[in-house]
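4.2 Preliminary Data

To establish feasibility before requesting continued support, the project team ran the inverse folding procedure on a target of 603 residues. The structure was first converted into the token representation described in Section 3, and no sequence information of any kind was made available to the design step. The complete token record follows.
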């Protein structure tokens, strides 16, 4: 199958053979094979809900049942309307009934957050593709425009004003991927384009097959293709440096990122991610490897032991294919010692092991750890936070990932003559954090808007109802019932919770939302496999419920038998009729009993 070309807007029908004229905001369906992606078709098509198979943009959970993506067709192409300051006159707008000029401005618009224009085309096969995108400026004043290709890989960042045209070319790789939360690979044959900026129209998209080398990436959550919530703000979006690397590469080479959250040098192989990479690896390709953040939490993956051995094996296997391995030291965290305020270098030993292995095997090493550590030391704890996701000391936001990708690009330019010709470093460090480095708050009118299944159906498929419930098993049940938004990122707050474990995202969500009492985590340990007592379960459950609904307390004499941190929750639970005087507060809870109790508070 060859290429495809799409021409957008109210354009005369003089188009060449094979060109599709997009004169209205047509939504993507697998049968059509092309179209826009909005909340409407995302709700109807399960595969559109997997970020790794799409553009990587997801509506925040309270807008998933709303139609906030409004696509306007103008002479110059298609754009997102319904933005602050957008001119809707004469629009042909999907999802809107007339002008929104009289509508009160919403909080996310006042903050400058934006809705992505997402377009998708199925090419029928995986491989490397050259994507040419023509953008046209629509605003009298210059406005910032961002263009992402594939799974939120940055292709261009700049400004446009009315009448100005910009042609952006980017080369992308499309291939099978194992989405987060899945255990098997999903085929992918689609090319995704995401435009951020109301002041620009998508005028034309051309896609052609391409024969070129590929840069494969293996790593963890600091490298992976993170999805971004929208309404979008760069400072409130998780981002791995692997998805920003393409911004520093010229045409003629593609990036295929198979890094995933929670992975170690061991689980990258065991969970099937390496097999997908290795099956497609060919002579002349390159493989970047960055691990360490999760390896350091496992005794058998110490820096000079299992960690080094696993990396060494990857080097040999990659070279056997005629490809070129490149080692990257683990990016530094924004971690400091509370006693004396000095920097706490948690990954020093792993960075040293990588550099030593590189020298021994004559493999290029990009010292990302040194570059990122120097930056954090220069900025200090507070100022460095603007380059990290809010309240996170490990994972970058879009600004931080763009900066880190620039350090990697500089390393490629210096260390690898084979890749140096494709690497440019202009724009390095030029994306400065704004005032958007905070998570969007739930609008008052949206709280409790979406209802889950009825309580009796919520845990109807629960297995082993007579078995004791563990702490790790309790958290997803509470999160689901109380409609907290789960995450796929884990920030290493507990020494005994590893990022690739199935419950790590639930632990992160619970910690961020204050569900876990500190008294249950002595010595930085959560003890996920420990049987949970009724008092502990009630403490976590009511910590979450109390933040959603008003509560009151009832006299309950047996409350004094519970640990001090759980007594308020016990009295609140008694007022709600969840427990009676027969309750064994300090006894383990059966899975079935816990499901019925939690289900009664489902929002």
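Position-by-position output of the design step:
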């Amino acid at each position: 199958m060859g290429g495809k070309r799409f021409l957008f807007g109210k354009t005369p029908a003089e188009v060449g053979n094979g060109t599709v004229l997009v004169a209205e905001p047509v939504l993507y369906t697998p049968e059509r094979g092309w179209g826009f992606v909005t909340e409407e078709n995302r709700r109807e098509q399960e595969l559109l809900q997997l970020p790794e198979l799409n553009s990587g943009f997801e509506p925040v959970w309270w807008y998933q049942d709303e139609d906030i993506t409004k696509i306007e067709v103008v002479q110059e192409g298609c754009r997102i309307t319904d933005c602050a300051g957008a001119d809707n006159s004469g629009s042909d707008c999907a999802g809107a009934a007339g002008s929104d000029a009289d509508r009160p401005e919403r909080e996310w618009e006042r903050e400058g957050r934006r809705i992505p224009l997402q377009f998708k085309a199925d090419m029928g096969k995986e491989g490397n593709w050259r994507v040419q995108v023509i953008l046209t400026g629509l605003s009298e004043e210059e406005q910032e425009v961002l263009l992402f290709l594939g799974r939120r890989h940055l292709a261009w960042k700049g400004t446009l004003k009315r009448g100005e045209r910009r042609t952006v070319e980017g080369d992308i790789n499309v291939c099978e991927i194992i989405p987060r939360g899945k255990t098997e690979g999903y085929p992918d044959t689609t090319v995704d384009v995401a435009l951020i900026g109301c002041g620009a129209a998508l005028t034309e998209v051309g896609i052609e097959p391409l024969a070129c080398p590929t840069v494969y990436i293996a790593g963890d959550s600091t490298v992976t293709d993170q999805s971004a919530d929208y309404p979008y703000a760069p400072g409130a979006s998780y981002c791995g440096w692997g998805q920003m690397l393409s911004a520093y590469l010229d045409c003629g080479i593609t990036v295929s990122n198979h890094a995933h959250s929670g992975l170690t040098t061991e689980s990258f192989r065991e969970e099937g991610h390496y097999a997908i990479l290795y099956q497609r690896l060919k002579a002349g390709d390159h493989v970047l490897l960055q691990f360490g953040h999760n390896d350091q939490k496992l005794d058998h993956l110490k820096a000079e032991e299992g960690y080094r051995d696993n990396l060494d094996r990857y080097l040999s296997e990659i070279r056997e294919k005629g490809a070129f391995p490149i080692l990257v030291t683990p990016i530094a965290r924004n971690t400091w010692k509370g006693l004396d305020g000095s920097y706490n270098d948690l990954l020093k030993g792993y960075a040293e092991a990588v550099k030593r292995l590189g020298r021994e095997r004559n493999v290029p090493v990009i010292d990302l750890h040194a570059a990122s550590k120097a930056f954090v030391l220069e900025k200090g704890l507070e100022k460095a936070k603007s380059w990290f996701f809010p309240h996170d000391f490990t994972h970058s936001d879009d600004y931080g990932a763009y900066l880190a990708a620039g350090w990697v690009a500089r390393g490629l330019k210096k260390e690898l003559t084979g890749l140096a010709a494709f690497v440019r470093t202009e724009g390095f460090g030029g994306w400065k954090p704004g005032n958007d480095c905070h998570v969007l708050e739930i609008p008052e009118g949206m709280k409790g808007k979406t209802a889950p299944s009825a309580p009796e159906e919520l845990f109807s498929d629960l297995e082993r109802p007579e078995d004791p419930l563990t702490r790790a098993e309790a958290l997803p049940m509470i999160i689901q019932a109380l409609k907290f938004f789960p995450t796929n990122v884990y920030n290493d707050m507990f020494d005994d919770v590893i990022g690739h474990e199935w419950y790590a995202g639930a632990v992160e969500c619970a910690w961020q939302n204050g569900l876990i009492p500190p008294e249950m985590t002595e010595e930085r340990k959560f003890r996920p496999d420990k049987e949970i007592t009724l008092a502990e379960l009630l403490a976590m459950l009511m910590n979450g419920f109390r933040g959603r609904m008003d509560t009151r307390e009832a006299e309950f004499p047996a409350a004094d038998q519970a640990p001090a941190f759980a007594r308020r929750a016990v009295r609140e639970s008694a007022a709600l009729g969840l427990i009676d005087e027969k309750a064994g507060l300090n006894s383990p809870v059966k899975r079935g009993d816990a499901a019925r109790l939690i289900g009664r508070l489902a929002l």
